[in-house]
Amino acid sequence: MTPMIRGNICLNAHPAGCEAMVDSWIARAIASRPAALAAAKDSGKPIPKTVLVIGCSTGYGLASRITAAFSFGAGTVGVSLEREPSDKKSGTPGWYDNRAFDAASAKAGLFSATLDADAFADGTRARVVDLAKERGLRFDQVIYSLASPVRVDPATGVMHRSVLKPIGESFTGRTFDVVSGEMGEVTIQPATDEEVAATVKVMGGEDWELWVKALSEAGLLAPGCVTLAYSYIGPEHTSKIYRAGAIGRAKEHLERTAGALSAYLAPIGGSAMVAVNKAVVTRASAVIPVVALYVAALFKAMKELGLHEDCLDQIARLYRDRLLARGPVPVDAEGRIRMDDWEMRDDVQERTARYFTEATEASLARAVDLAGFKHDFLEAHGFDMPGVDYAADVAFR
Ligand SMILES: NC(=O)c1ccc[n+]([C@@H]2O[C@H](COP(=O)([O-])OP(=O)(O)OC[C@H]3O[C@@H](n4cnc5c(N)ncnc54)[C@H](O)[C@@H]3O)[C@@H](O)[C@H]2O)c1
Prior knowledge:
alpha/beta; Rossmann fold; seven-stranded parallel sheet; binds nicotinamide-adenine-dinucleotide
């Protein structure tokens, strides 16, 4: 079975490859366990025991769930929206990832429950509330890691679509095709005010707030509960399409929501924080024009400097050096946890800018880390995993 890729979107997923990928992350999380527990012991802070991950199946959400479970021994509840396989068609990678996670948790004697459901729906919140009550769970961490193009507002029934567009003026940037290595230029017209508002509706903090309040009102947040959401800032090259674009407005909203939620959680000694993570290759990030080329240039720079991290490395460090650091969690002037500190270092950015600018179609494979980008992209769909026989027949279910 081979990957079917169109326009940097992979349309299929390899069941055994996804399982191998989840198992490899789990093995790494188990290997980081001594360092993770030592950080907790040193700071005297409690380790997570019961964690809800919204957007649990792939990327940063999966890395968070695996770290909570296999580095700390936490029981986890996960929510993600997947496409089920049929006899002829594979499911989404997340469908297989969730199954592999649940199987590994059961084997390790860890509690896990996974809901394949729309996280934006009130009905899904009600299902998580019922499940937690039935099982007697109270969450000490709630991780919000959704990346979605659409959201139906449960209050109005209106479907909002997020856009990846600049604001104010059009933007032209370079991109590359992950399969052919062909480079092209894309021009994106600016978002309308309605599109910016819709993007904030989908990717801003409104839904995060609904989750935290629903769980709190049901008495399901443990004293001292920490809720985390993930954001991105990035450099000048990607700013017009990302941070200064429609999605950036949504991320600003998410970051402001953290402040409001922290105040809301204060009576139980809880807090809400945003972690600004580094750019990685996930299903969501591979399709953002310019960002893909930037990420491939960044990977080359960070690997050369011995600073490269994937989702799992980032989350391991988030727990070890931030959440479980001695004293207050280290944050920037806006109260955000900066896991992009290495990405944004001057030496990393100087090299990245050089590789990004110098890359041409002819030099792409050398100028940036095309191979590394491609591997991570394929891995996220269960392909290019060592030890998996891709010539063998595949049962999708
Ligand atoms: N990828 C990056 O480079 C990067 C960098 C920094 C921050 N982030 C942030 O991390 C967060 C997660 O992004 P990612 O890159 O890991 O994405 P991803 O595509 O790998 O994961 C998104 C998750 O959301 C789930 N999801 C989407 N719509 C859903 C719905 N309606 N209901 C339930 N689940 C749904 C998916 O099933 C998946 O589990 C986002 O907030 C993103 O902005 C990403």
